[in-house]
Amino acid sequence: MPKRQRTLQPDGHTAKRRSDQQPRQRHVYLIVDDWERGYSVRKIDVDTFCDCNLHEDAAPEPEPLPEPPATRFEGPHCRLWFFGAHGTKILALPAYGAANFPVYDTETLGITLCAHPNGQKVRRPPILASVAGTLYMLLETSLAVLGAAPPPNSDENKTWAWNFMPEHLPFEAPYVKSLAVHPDGRTLFVSAKGRTFSLDTGNLKWTCRGNWAMPFIGEAYFDEELDAWVGLCIHEGGFGRVCSCDTVPIAAECKTMPAWKLGKDQLFYADRERHLGATLLSMGDSRYCLVECAAHEDQAGEDYAAHRVYHVTTFRLKYDKDGELRITRRLLRSYEMTDAHELNEPYKRPVAFWM
Questions:
Q1: DSSP states of 180-203
Q2: Is the per-residue pLDDT at 3 higher than 50?
Q3: Is residue 228 a contact partner of residue 214, using CB atoms and an 8 Å limit?
Q4: Are the C-beta atoms of 344 and 78 separated by less than 8 Å?
Q5: pLDDT, tens digit, for every residue of 201-249?
Q6: What is the pTM of this model?
Q7: pLDDT > 90? residue 152
Q8: pLDDT value at position 53?
């Protein structure tokens, strides 16, 4: 049997060649407008969170956001909803520039440029969905697909650009309440105005699934261990909790809403005056991260809270012996920041990505 190949190290010693690389550590990337010229990207290491044995209604004292920022983007304020993510990249659509916008790669730390759809800046909040390695944009009544990035050192005339599909969407993007990728890895489900549609990204054809809506607000995620979609509940009485929902068979008709279950544990209280918004992120293996934005206690009840607190909670989900959806291993850390402007940001939900 041949000897295992060895590599020579700079100090002259040999070491075994690793058959595979260690997985890259992932982080929460939080976008905030705490910079007078635009936005900061704050990198949060949730692996440093500890169990502080706090009561579920309590929160630790907020600390400053991690310094220094991972990167910053110049651009007009009050455009948080124009940020998106794809793989390891953060797309900064609100940045200045008529033709192109910057894209930051959290793995390589590189910045590249991507063309605006149709060469024009996006004026209404887009909905971005990453499916099977491709990024899709729902904009007004149109579907755009982001082409492959040009290879390094390619023809300087080649640009990273969007392709618009000729058919109109069967709904209007501003009315989308929830979206989720099917476990087949290629089908996107979208709920808008009480109806649910699916997009086969293989042929870019839409199908109406029925006059029912998924029970989520925002993006939901397929949890392999639970064999269900998981997201924040949209229904009154379920605000501040996660819920799970059976996935829809692709080949079969589903004219009624699939079975779903409301979680037993409260993550936040949406009716409290300090609450502004929340975003759920999937970390894989039934691990999740909730980012809640709240007004600082010194601005509770005010119409515009420039001084805000971000509660970042990691947890796991499981069904207990009674079949109830429960939260376990809950860890929490809080951060505070102040807007670098005096404009009323209309988008209250935190903009955060797990990558």
A1: EE-TTSSEEEEEETTEEEEEETTT
A2: no
A3: no
A4: yes
A5: 999 999 999 999 999 999 999 999 999 999 999 998 899 999 999 999 9
A6: 0.89
A7: no
A8: 52
**Which positions ≥6 away from 213 have C-beta within 8 Å?**
177, 178, 191, 192, 194, 195, 196, 234, 257
Interatomic CA distance for residues 211 and 207, integer angstroms:
12
- Please give the helix or strand (H or E) that residue 120 lies within, else none: none
Q: Which residues pair with 192 in a beta bridge?
A: 176, 195
The amino acid that residue 189 corresponds to is F
Q: Residue 256 corresponds to which tokens in the numbers above?
A: 């009624």
The answer for residues whose C-beta is within 8 angstroms of residue 92's C-beta and 6 or more apart is 39, 73, 75, 82, 83, 101, 102, 103, 104
Backbone angles phi, psi at 16, to 5 degrees: -70, 140
Contact call for residues 131 and 181 (beta carbons, < 8 A): yes
Q: Answer yes or no: are the C-beta atoms of 69 and 27 closer than 8 Å.
A: no
Nearest in space to 196 (alpha carbons), one of 185, 186, 211, 184: 211
Measured CA to CA, the distance from residue 107 to residue 6 in angstroms comes to 27
The CB density around residue 331, as the number of other CB atoms within 10 Å, is 17
Using the predicted structure, report yes or no on whether residue 92 has a pLDDT greater than 50: yes
Q: Which residues contact 246 (CB under 8 A, 6 or more apart)?
A: 228, 229, 258, 259, 260
| Contacts of 72 by beta carbon, 8 Å cutoff, 6+ apart | 35, 37, 38, 39, 40, 41
Determine how many CB atoms are found less than 10 A away from the CB of residue 296: 17
**Helix/strand/coil for 175:** helix
Secondary structure (DSSP) of 134-154: EEEEEETTEEEEEPPPPPTT-
CA atoms within 13 A on the CB side of 155: 3
Q: Read off the pLDDT of each residue in 79-87 and give the average, rounded to a whole number.
A: 92
